[in-house]
Automatic annotation (TrEMBL), chains A, B:
Lineage top rank: taxon: Bacteria
This protein's name: Arginine biosynthesis bifunctional protein ArgJ
Gene: argJ
Single GO MF descriptor: L-glutamate N-acetyltransferase activity
Enzyme class (EC, first level): transferase
Biological process according to GO: L-arginine biosynthetic process; ornithine biosynthetic process
Assigned protein family: Belongs to the ArgJ family.
GO cellular component: cytoplasm
Alphabetical UniProt keywords: Acyltransferase, Amino-acid biosynthesis, Arginine biosynthesis, Autocatalytic cleavage, Cytoplasm, Multifunctional enzyme, Transferase
Amino acid sequence: MPDIAGATPYVARAGYKEWDRCDLSYVRFDAGTTVAGVTTQNLCCSAEVDLCRAHLRHGLARALVVNAGNSNAFTGQRGKDAVDVIVGQVAAHLSCDVTEIFVSSTGVIGVPLPIDKAQAGLEAAFGAAPCSWADITHGIGTTDTFAKGATASAMVDGRKVQIVGIIKGSGMIAPDMATMLGYIFTDAAVDAAFLQQLLSAANKSSFSCITVDSDTSTSDTVLAFATGQAGNMQLTSYDDAGADAFAAALSDVCRQLAHLVVRDGEGAQKFIEIQVTGAASNDSARRVGLAIANSPLVKTAIAGEDANWGRVVMAVGKAGEPANRDTLSIRFGSTLVARNGLAVADYDEAPVARHLKQKEIEIGVDLGLGSGHATVWTCDLTHGYISINADYRS
Amino acid sequence: MPDIAGATPYVARAGYKEWDRCDLSYVRFDAGTTVAGVTTQNLCCSAEVDLCRAHLRHGLARALVVNAGNSNAFTGQRGKDAVDVIVGQVAAHLSCDVTEIFVSSTGVIGVPLPIDKAQAGLEAAFGAAPCSWADITHGIGTTDTFAKGATASAMVDGRKVQIVGIIKGSGMIAPDMATMLGYIFTDAAVDAAFLQQLLSAANKSSFSCITVDSDTSTSDTVLAFATGQAGNMQLTSYDDAGADAFAAALSDVCRQLAHLVVRDGEGAQKFIEIQVTGAASNDSARRVGLAIANSPLVKTAIAGEDANWGRVVMAVGKAGEPANRDTLSIRFGSTLVARNGLAVADYDEAPVARHLKQKEIEIGVDLGLGSGHATVWTCDLTHGYISINADYRS
C-alpha cells in the first residue's frame, strides 16, 4: 500500500490482552486534514463512538488512535474517562484541539479500558519510528484471520491522488447503515462536508450491504481522512473536476474493504453474493437481500453445497417486504431453478452442483414486482462459527 | 392424553418420503365442531395455508388432514390442485361442505405433493381403526426428535372440559404472530368467533414468543377445534361462566406446546428463557427479547456456558427499540451482572457459572425505561444445528 503524504502511522504495545503483539495504533495527520465518518446504529454504542460523532462535526483531524483487545463499550463513566485521557494526552503532544483527535476501541464488551496501559502505549507510539500500513492492519485486528487493506487512485485536477483503506472485522457483523472499524486515508484535498457526502454514499452500497451473523457491533466506525497534500484544488462538490473519479475510487476501496470482512467472516468457507432485482424499491431489495443473507437455513445449505432454494423462498417471504410468491424467480449461478412461483421443470442440476462446489456463490432473486435492485454479500454458516463463538471467553 | 369426544384420530402411510412410518394424519370431527386458527406471516406461504385461512372464515370443521414429508409450498397451481383433490375427497367421504375440511403439509419446500399418494393414503385412513393422539404426534413430525403433546382441563358451566394439543416443529422456527404446525382439540362448546379470540390471545404469549433460528416457515399453522360434546352451554364471550378458566387452560396448552418446540430446537442443548422488563411497551419488550433470542453470538455464548453479557448488551442495542445504554441492567439466573450501564463491581461469578451449566437458562434484562414486559423462549446454537442443516438434502 502506498504512502499517503501527511498521514504517518505508528504502532505500539499497550498490552490490553495477554498477547505478544502491537495493539495500539496511532496515525498522525498534518494540519489541514479533513475527516468524515459513519458509525454504528447500535443504541448501546461505546464512548469512542460518541466521541467520534461529536468530533466529526468539526471536520478536522490531527490524529487517530485505535485500541485492540478491549472495546471499552458498556463501561459507563470509567469508559468515557479513559477516552478523555487518551484525547487529552494526544492533543497535548500535538498542541492541537481535542476535537481533532479520533479514537476507536475493539474487543470484549463491558471491561473498562485500562487507562495506565493506554497512556504508556501512547508514549511508546510517540517515540516510535513510523511503520507501514500493513503493520497498522495487524495492529487493529482481533479475531481476524488475515490483515485487510485496499487501495485505489484517481486523477483529480491533474494530480494523481491515492486512497488507502484498512479494516478489521470478522464476527458481530451486520452494519446496517453503519460500518466496521475501518479507516480510509487519502492525500486528496476534499472539503469535510463533501467527504462526508461521498463516504455516506459509498457506505450505502458497501458496508451497509454485508452481514456475517446479523449481529450489529457496539463499536462500528469508519473514518475517512483527507490530508490534501496531493496538491489538487480542494473538492467541494460533484461539480468539481475529478470529483466523480475520486468518488468512484473511494467507493471501490469501500467495496473492497467490505468484501474482505465477509471473506474473513467467522468460520466462513464461501463468499456469497446475493443479487435482488424486481423489487418495489432499492431499499426493499436490500432488505430482502439481507433477510436471505441472514437466514441460518440458507447459510447452512450453502455450507452443505445443497441447492435448497426452498429456503431462499422462505427467507424472501419472511423479510416483511413486498413480495409475491407467484412472480418470484430464483437462480443459483447462471441456472434458473425456480420461475414464477414454482420449480423450473427438469432444470439441469449439474451446473448448479458445480457452482455450489466453488468458493464464490451467486444467488439471484427476481421478485417480479418493480425495478428496485440491490446486491448484498455474506458468508456461509459452518461449524467454524460455532467453535469460534462458543469458546471465545469474555 | 385423554380422548376428546367428537374428535376421532387416524393415521396412514401415504409414503411421501422413503421412510417406514405413517405420514398422513386424519382427524374426523362430529358435526357442530367449531374451529379457529392462526397462520404464518410468511408471504410465500403454502396453498394449505391459503386454504385454512379461507375455510376459517366459515368457523366449522368436519376433518383435519396433515401430510408430513412434503410442505407443498411454492408449487404453484399443481400444489393448489393437490389440496383441492384432498379436500374434495374428504368432503365426499363425509358428505359435508369442502369449507369444513382443513389441510396442512410439512417438509421440503418446492416439490408438488404427489396427488396419487395423498389419495391412496386418505383411503387407507378412512378404512383404518382409530388411533391415539400419541400416534398422531408421531405422524405429523419431520425433523422432530420427540413427539410433542400437551393437555389441560377446565371447569366450564359445571362440566369438566378437556383440551389436547399436539405440535411439530424443530427448525425454521420464528413464528412472529403466527405459529408452527399445531393442533388443539377440546370437547368444550365454544363459539367459533370467541374461540378465534381466545386462540389469538394465547398465541401472542406462546407461539409468537419463541424462536429457534429466526427463520419463519412458509407453512406455520395452528388450528383449534371444539367439538362441543362436553355438554356445557356454548361459550361466546369472556362474560360467560367458565370462559376465564377455559382461556387459562387453552393458554396453558399453547405455552406447553411452544416450549416443547424450543426444547426440540435443532441442535438445542439448553432451554433459554429471556425476561424483558422496563420497556417502553409490551410489544417493544417482546421485540427486544426476540433480538436477544435470535442473536447467534448470544446463543453460542450460552452453548459455551460463557457469561458473556456484553453480547446481550449488543443485542439490546441492535433491536431498533427504545433503549438507553445507561439505564440497562442484566441478570443471569438470579445474579445481577450489569446495572445502569456498567458491570456490577465484583459480582459473584460462582452462582453465574453454576447457573450456566444447567439445562434451563434464565436471562433477565431491565431496560429501565417504562413498564413494558415480555418473556420469550429460545435454545442455544450448537454444532448440532450446523450438522442437521448443512446435511439436510433438498
